[in-house]
Amino acid sequence: MNDAPDLAELERRAAGRGPEYGEKAHIVCDNLVRIYQTEGVEVIALQGLDLLVGEGEMVALVGASGSGKSTLLNILAGLDVPTAGVARVAGADLLDMSGRDRLRFRRELVGFVWQQTARNLLPYLTAAENVEMPMRFAGVGRRERRARAAELLDLMGVGDRAAARPGEMSGGEQQRTAIAVAVANRPKVVLADEPTGELDTATGAQVFAALRRANRELGVTTVIVTHDPDVAGSVDRTVGIRDGRTSSEILRRTTRDASGREEVIAEEYAVLDRAGRLQLPREFTSALEMRDRVRLALETDHIGVWPDRSNDDHR
Ligand SMILES: Nc1ncnc2c1ncn2[C@@H]1O[C@H](COP(=O)(O)OP(=O)(O)OP(=O)(O)O)[C@@H](O)[C@H]1O
């Protein structure tokens, strides 16, 4: 006898979870787990990551090397399959997808920009031909392809480089062309893994500006993995990943001071998952020497967290 719950039972259990988590979000990660097995050793790259991104949002993902950012991006791109949890992008369920749907998802619903310029563009095609390539796969007619490629290269500020091959373009021009390629098929989501990583500050700023233009003018939801503080500081929302989980978020909003000047206010938040778990920033816990256990108190409008002093008398 097999005691494992059948599909109907799993669906019943899932239905009992109350209102669907992230029902309206464009990207939903719920308790996402990715375990790699290499030579008998398990690496838990994502250990229950939660993330919601709304349609049209532009979000930066930051975190130490090895925290799981690229793993997450590869899953959202449909290139890697999570071990457990929920991952949905633009309505597509990334855990339950046939090979054919996955291919369609990668061709039509997401666009990517990688750090290595060589990975983004075909070296023997011109910039315009590179932008036309995904449209060709999608069966777009020649005239429409040409017009859209020209329009997108213009939007990215590299319209005058349309006839150049990647080897004849600067790194920044190649990355801006890569963004045009990524959005060619009108994807719902663009994923960029360190798009400015190989560029100097000024060129990186131009590439970021091109991504932002794609986000604002084409309305495409954009997720950027970055170590670049200028990029992380320029988006409305920066999500910190620590040890395979979302740990904190910085939200920025623009207001006007008394003299009418614009100022950006950045506020830090901790991510609270459905089970009530949150990660306190390491600087906070180490400043107050918090370890193992903390004391909590519910106040009318906040929760107080204190170091555990209960054993101090016995020491
Ligand atoms: N294909 C793989 N096989 C085995 N382990 C992997 C694989 N890919 C990633 N890992 C491990 O998973 C963890 C998360 O890696 P990941 O590349 O997602 O981190 P990251 O935050 O993107 O790091 P970086 O900023 O250096 O790119 C690391 O411990 C890494 O060694």
Automatic annotation (TrEMBL):
Gene3D superfamilies: P-loop containing nucleotide triphosphate hydrolases. InterPro entries: AAA+_ATPase, ABC_transporter-like_ATP-bd, ABC_transpr_LolD-like, MacB-like_ATP-bd, P-loop_NTPase. The keyword Chloroplast does not apply. It comes from the Bacteria. It holds the Pfam family ABC_tran. GO terms for molecular function: ATP binding; ATP hydrolysis activity; transmembrane transporter activity. GO terms for cellular component: membrane protein complex; plasma membrane. Keywords: ATP-binding, Nucleotide-binding, Transport. Residues 27-268 form the ABC transporter domain. This is ABC transporter ATP-binding protein. It comes from Actinoallomurus iriomotensis. The lineage of its organism: Bacteria, Bacillati, Actinomycetota, Actinomycetes, Streptosporangiales.
